[in-house]
Write a structure and sequence with these properties.
Length: 263
C-alpha cells in the first residue's frame, strides 16, 4: 500500500485535485484514449449525417406518421453529431480531475483491469457516497501494469442528471498516462487517505459482481464504510460538524481549513 503522509485529504477536498503539469509526449505514448476523441467525432458525424438524410427522406414522404418519424430520426442524427463533438480529449481528465485510489486486478494479453474507489456524491452537506468502479482498457506498448500494483487515478466522465444528489457513473484514468515524474506519482499516492486505500482492498471481494454489472459500478452501503469515510472532518475543504439528521453543518470557511486528522 502507498505510504500516506499528512498531506492526505478527504474526498472532494480541493487539494485532492490533480494539478501537475501534463507531459504531452507521455500522454501520446501511454494513453489508449489519445485517439478516442477523433474516432468519436468521425463516428458521430457519419452516423448523424446518415440519420439526418433518412429523416429528411421520411419527412418528404408527406404522410403524418412519416413526418413524425422523420423528425425523430433527424433529432437523433443531430444528437449523434453533438455527442461525437463533445467527446472528451485524452488531456481533459488530467485538468483538475480528483485523485482516487486504484489497484490493478488483472493484466492479460494487454487487457488491464483497474479497481478504483470514488465518491459519487454531488451534495456537499450529505455524507460521501463511495462506490467501486472497474476500469478496463488495452495497455499501450511500453507501459507496464502488474496485478497488485497501486495506481492513483483521476475521476472524470461523470454521468447523471442534474436533479440527482449522486452521479450514476464515472470513468477513471491512471495519472501515469499524464506524467512519468516519480515525485508527482508519489505525492499523488500520499494525498489519498489510508482509509480509502484500505477500503479499496475490500472491493477485490466484489470483482465477480462488478464484472457482471453493465455499469461496472457498485455503490458501497454506509454500514460497510469506516467512520473516517462516512463522516469526514471536512467537506469540499471546509470543516464540518455532522448533525443527527445525517447532514453536515459547515463550521469554518475555505480560509479555515483543517487536516482530517486534527480535532
Amino acid at each position: 500500500m502507498p505510504r500516506v503522509s499528512e498531506s492526505a485529504w478527504p474526498a472532494g477536498d480541493p487539494r485532492r485535485f490533480f494539478d501537475a503539469p501534463i507531459d504531452a509526449d507521455q500522454l501520446r505514448a501511454s494513453s489508449p484514449n489519445i485517439h478516442a476523441r477523433a474516432i468519436a467525432m468521425v463516428v458521430g458525424l457519419v452516423a448523424g449525417v446518415v440519420l439526418i438524410a433518412l429523416g429528411w427522406w421520411a419527412i418528404a414522404d408527406g404522410r403524418w406518421w412519416s413526418v413524425v418519424l422523420g423528425v425523430l430520426v433527424v433529432l437523433a442524427g443531430l444528437y449523434a453529431v453533438v455527442r461525437g463533438f463533445r467527446a472528451e480529449h485524452a488531456v481533459k481528465p488530467f485538468r483538475g480531475g480528483q485523485l482516487v485510489p486504484g489497484v490493478v486486478v488483472e493484466q492479460a494479453d494487454g487487457k488491464v483491469e483497474i479497481l478504483v474507489l470514488g465518491d459519487i456524491s454531488r451534495d456537499p452537506v450529505s455524507p460521501p457516497r463511495f462506490a467501486y468502479r472497474l476500469i478496463s482498457f488495452r495497455a499501450r506498448e511500453g507501459t507496464q501494469f502488474v496485478p497488485g500494483q497501486w495506481v492513483p487515478c483521476v475521476m472524470h466522465g461523470f454521468v447523471g442528471p442534474g436533479r440527482r444528489d449522486t452521479w450514476w457513473n464515472f470513468e477513471a484514468s491512471p495519472i501515469s498516462w499524464a506524467t512519468a515524474d516519480a515525485t508527482v506519482l508519489q505525492n499523488a499516492d500520499r494525498m489519498i487517505p489510508e482509509a480509502e486505500w484500505t477500503q479499496l482492498l475490500t472491493g477485490a471481494e466484489q470483482l465477480t459482481e462488478l464484472r457482471r454489472r453493465m455499469s461496472k459500478l457498485l455503490v458501497i452501503p454506509d454500514t460497510e464504510l469506516p467512520e473516517a469515510l462516512r463522516r469526514p472532518a471536512s467537506r469540499i475543504g471546509v470543516p464540518v460538524e455532522w448533525q443527527e439528521t445525517g447532514r453536515a453543518r459547515f463550521v469554518g470557511s475555505l480560509s479555515d481549513r483543517v487536516h482530517p486528522a486534527m480535532p
